[in-house]
Every structure is written in C-alpha cells, then in structure tokens.
Amino acid sequence: MKLGGIKRLITGAFVAVLLLISVGSTTADAQRRYIYRYPRPYFHRVYDPFRDPWGPYWNRTITVVDPIAQQRESGYSDGHKRGKDDAKNGKPNDPASHKHYSNSHSLTYRQAFLKGYAEGYREQMDRIG
User: Fold this and answer.
1) pTM metric for this prediction
2) pLDDT tens, 29-61?
3) Which of 7, 11, 54, 87 is deepest in the core (most CB within 10 A)?
C-alpha cells in the first residue's frame, strides 16, 4: 500500500516538473524573433565541392532582435521626421493627426513617436527662428 502511494507521488512530481519546464521554454521562445542573414553573397560563384564541401548556404548567422527596442527606434524616427516636416510646412504641433501614431496598437511605439515628434518639431522651429 505504501509503495503505490510513493509511486504516485514520484510520478506526480515528475509530471509537474515537466509541465513547468515546457511552459517556461514556450514563453521564452515566444518573446524572440529570429532574422536570418546570409553573409556570403550568392552571385556567379563557381561551386567547388573540394574547397567548400558544405555549399554556399552553410555559413548562416542568426540574429535575435528585441521587438520592444525595434518599436521604440522606429517610433522615434517616424515621429522625429514627421515633427520636422510639420514645423517646416507651418502645420500645428499635433502628433495625433498622423496615421502612424493613430493606427499604432503599441504603447511603446506611441510613446517614442511622441518624444521624437516633440524633439523634431522643436529642432525645426529653432532653426526657422
């Protein structure tokens, strides 16, 4: 009787550990985005199997990109450009009038857009006078 209870306890602990490991690895993989780059250009190259036995596609590199940092950078640069253009054309200081800002669903992108827009608008107004 005691042997059956111990087996159930060990089996339950083993299953719990497996579930924890699988949940942790799934969330870590979901947060990464992979970009594949091919460092060797493939153009008019004669393939020599003795010099390069693995072919032209062997030397691939993988770069992991942080999606939050990418949204921050693109939001700031978009806002900076739009702010400078608005100040140059004499438009009012209104970042919400741009579709990049209003159609974005990312809070990080919107915050960076506002910061870039304000700095771009101010820089252009300082240049104008």
Assistant:
1) 0.52
2) 445 554 545 444 444 455 556 665 555 555 555
3) 87
